[in-house]
User: Fold this.
Amino acid sequence: MPARPAVADRAAPFDRAVVRKVLLAAVALVLAVLYARRAVAGWTGGPLPYDLVTFLHASDDVLAGRNPFPAVETLTGDQNYVYPPLLALALAPLAVLPVSVATLLWVAVGVAAIAGALWLLEVRDPWVYAIALLFPATRDAVGAGTVGPLLVLAAALAWRLRDARPVLPALPVAVSVALKPFTWPLAVWLAATRRLRAAVLAVVLAIGVALASWLVVGFDGLGEYPELLRRLSELEADRSYSLVAVADAVGLGNTVGAAASIVVGGVLLVLAVLLGRGEGLDADRRALTASIAAALALSPIVWIHYLVLLLVPLALARPRFSPLWLVVLVPLAPRAVGWEPKGWPEGDALSLAVVLGVAIVVLVATLRPAPR
Assistant:
């Protein structure tokens, strides 16, 4: 009796590699659509990046010789320009372009800065890039036209150049602090890891860059700037994701929140110093993570896009895809209770719990020693 022929239509083995590539292509397409919609908002009539519009108005003022800062008594919130002059000066080339072109270029810069930072941190897994760009903090940072992606790139550059000549890691830290002063704990990281010359240079350069930018605008608004920041904190601290907002949400008030912020931030800075005394790459990484955590804890105002800085410790601790990367996507999960992530929690307990819970889980996990 002849042997039975093999069944020709038997299903082929399940090709997981093909499925992964198809899924990755689908995610890449979704990301391309999401960011392209923001990039072409100037032509489609969609909402323009909120922060970018504010920056461009400030650049217009600087180019026209006007003071870009509001008077303290007229400050109404972050729709007013409250950054150091450096940012308004840096974006002056975009201010002379049509807003549609400026938006396209700035969104492209934001996406490129995130991708460049991950590359500098030696991430090569395409799934990590995809998740990093899906992260709500990243989407808000790029979509609103903030400087967050540039801060991530600056931290990545400082890490990559940490053992080069002191001026090389000092420069990106100085620029970061001059753009957003709340990132000053990055200089503490340099000092904590026995790079004292780089830390001192970072502080000196940050002060020099800041003063030079104030000089260009004739020192307009310099005397009132500390009071302007204090007033901004009064208006927005309890509406954000900061520890001040948490204390206010549970009924402890802003004063207790400010004290808690100082205590928690101080503890994290001490931890950075202690970790920096260790030897090797892992000690450096954990000290940087503690410094970034301190920056977020000490800031009286923390919007969701500030958390884009979490990409740095995440990429260093998990350069390849791991379940920890999925934690940052928790706010995208279906909301059984109808919760939506937003940049303005307004003291909403659920918003604070979800977003800050993600930040705490990521920071605690990345502060742990790397497995041998």
Observations:
- The CA atoms of residues 121 and 316 lie 6 Å apart.
- The longest helix spans residues 16-39.
- DSSP finds 19 helices and no strands in the chain.
